[in-house]
Input
Amino acid sequence: MPGHSIEARASQRAFFGVSALLFTVSTAATIVGAVSMSAMGEMPMPGGWTMSAAWMPMCGQTWSGLAASFLGMWVVMMVAMMLPSLVPMLLRYREAVGGAGVTGLGWLTVVVGARYFFVWTAFGMAAFPLGAALAALEMQQPALARAVPFAMGVIVLIAGALQFTAWKARRLACCRTTPGRCLMLPALSADVTTAWRHGLHLGLQCSYCCAGLTTVLLVAGVMDLRVMAAVTAAITVERLAPRGERAARLIGVGIVGAGVLLIARAIGLG
Output
């Protein structure tokens, strides 16, 4: 029907417009937040590295204030980093449930996206206390602090090796395929409950698939714009490239190389 076709095109344009606006705003906020964090300075640590202000409260800042600041920055950063690869998944969802001219498709898309980023928010809530506790130990134990550069290299090396595993290939395939096929869901229906569940499963699958790359982000510089840009590019390329599994392995080569360089540098400094 002509009317339905016009309405569908308008809905599609609105979807892309809102996505572009959200990406622009979140990217700008991420850059401002990272620059502000960088202006606070970093703390020199034994072993020749510096600790980010993201993990330790500055003068006059409470732990609760630091946690709120970290979580807010984390959520904005995740929106900017994950949205380029999330948009195709949301498009596939919209096609799966909107083919019969379903009403409220925009609202259902928002529900899926909100649940997806809820998973990443929970990940940030878990990462902060672990990172802060480790930072406190490193400040109290100089021997532990001196081991950080070597440990960082090993972690990055392992994260790179993960890119070559069958487990990674399965998770990546789930993020690139038709909704429901890898998510153990029944046929998608146009209701809020199904949208809520679908967003949860998308978020979980995506967090599994990005486990190695997210680990690199956390250990190499969670508020470093260069690291954020590199991880965002890697996630987007392996999701959208025609041969995603091959792209993931090429990215793995780069990460393994970075891990080897970090280990060599740590040994040289030691």
Q: What stands out?
A: The mean pLDDT is 85.
